[in-house]
Design brief:
CATH superfamily of the largest domain: Aminohydrolase, N-terminal nucleophile (Ntn) domain
Helix content: 25-40%
Mean pLDDT: 93
CATH architecture of the largest domain: 4-Layer Sandwich
Bound molecules: 2-deoxy-2-amino glucitol-6-phosphate
Distance between the termini: 39 Å
Amino acid sequence: MGYTGHRPALDVVLDGLRRLEYRGYDSAGVAVLDGDGGLAVERKAGRLANLEARLDEVGRDSLTGGTGMGHTRWATHGAPVDRNSHPHRDTTGRIAVVHNGIIENFAQLRAELEADGIELASDTDSETAAHLVSRIYDGDLAAAVRTVSRRLEGAFTLVVTHADEPDKVVAARRSSPLVVGVGEGETFLASDVAAFIEHTRNAVELGQDQVVVITKDGYEVTDFHGEPVQAKPFEVNWDLSAAEKGGHDYFMLKEIEEQPEALANTLRGHFTDGRIVLDEQRLADQDLRDVDKVFVVACGTAYHSGLVAKYAIEHWTRLPVECELASEFRYRDPVLDRDTLVVAISQSGETADTLEAVRHAREQKARVLAICNTNGAQIPRESDAVLYTHAGPEIGVAATKTFLAQIATNYLVGLALAQARGTKYPDEVAREFHELEAMPAAVQQALGTVGQVRELAHELSDSKAILFLGRHVGFPVALEGALKLKELAYMHAEGFAAGELKHGPIALIEDQLPVVVVMPSPKGRAVLHSKLLSNISEIQARGARTIVIAEEGDDTVKPFADHLIEVPAVPTLLQPLVSSVPLQVLAAEIARSRGYDVDKPRNLAKSVTVE
Ligand code: AGP
């Protein structure tokens, strides 16, 4: 958040940060310019409350002035500790920067700054921006920010202040959110409007690759080359609580809609010069070549992402892959040695069952690669290597965008193994990656089903139970659809491999029982498609009400579908990324129709730290 105007900046910024805190709980910080050439910064690891306690301790007298900015952090580069908290300063201490996003070429920029004799005070990618601005600053902060922005690769919102220009705040945006709030004699900058709508409802959304300068009298927008840009103003008509949820009634729907962005962020920077690059993980290519077996261990939704991965990793690498519930893994004496790769998937990185599985695997000398959404959490700390999903903070207890990001990250691991072991030619690896790269757009298209699914949810909200069927990668999607419904709508739900139906579960089918069927593509594995068509006709003949998730244009399925939900056509292994979307919405909206709290279902916690 940034502010300049007639009020004390510290109060406005702290209020704004309270509204934005859900975006990251790793640290919080503020910078205030006193107007006489002074720039004061306070920052603290942990929640905003820690920063406020720190301000009470040191006093707020040094932080007076009408221009300031603040930040709450969700760590990507560098552990969540004080020195990695924002704002970051240059070596003169006169420039302060907060950053949201990932600067992909930061290693190169860091090396360049160090070669210039600049000692960086943090492990973050963000700090490089402060020094880069400082190095070229010649009296025009906006010009310096534009020049630096052109050098940065990746996604960023930068907010920058300089003690020599105390009446303005400069910000730049590429692929990360940034809005301007225009008040009377005051102007705001924030990642979302929730930060300032108690002061003004007049907002301006910035476009890609734009720089904005705010003063108390207004704002000016240019592109990264200084060409003026006409930005589009809009009026915010949400109330405060809706604004925090991006205009939605609950966080989970906001997070479902953030899935294209989460996927793009997770994939960003992992394919360079024709190769998969997993630079955060600390396993050398030789380690990957030595692997002779893969175990995936995880719980709940993360486990379902692992089940999806099994199909891809075995197909691409010809390595045997076992996917196992973390709570079962260590109690059954699995066969592990130093050539076993254990992939431990956990959104929170704190799940006790998964952590104990990691410890067990390491005791047995297996190599452990963590896939995690929370920087610096216990599971990555105790693993040999880590790959972070960059899905952003997930507030809803039910995992949604982190599920998709986990699937994508698992696929990156599979492709890295295939590349290192030579089981796929480089052009095949490249093709698989590019197909993955097209998925944010496909997921965006799948989000077009939200309205239809909402209506259906309303109709199904009185059902006693719902069954879910799938084959191949559609089977874990069915399990995940059922888990979502159980945890949110407190409704009996079960997922089955469609081929298992005739071995028992078909006895459950009765008149009007809703059954969700996840259809494979007719163009991918034709045999799977025709087998599933037979399964649907079997349940339809017994009176089931069929809800079919199928590829758009799949006409063969129409006679079997009481409700047809069409998702975009994508390669078979990638189908879970689109077919999961309507199932997430279905569970959330049934829960809502039943009057339940979608974001905080009963008896559950976001991170389960007991075994
Ligand atoms: C999913 O909606 C759940 N809330 C739950 O199953 C979750 O995925 C599981 O507890 C694992 O959590 P983790 O990814 O943080 O380890």
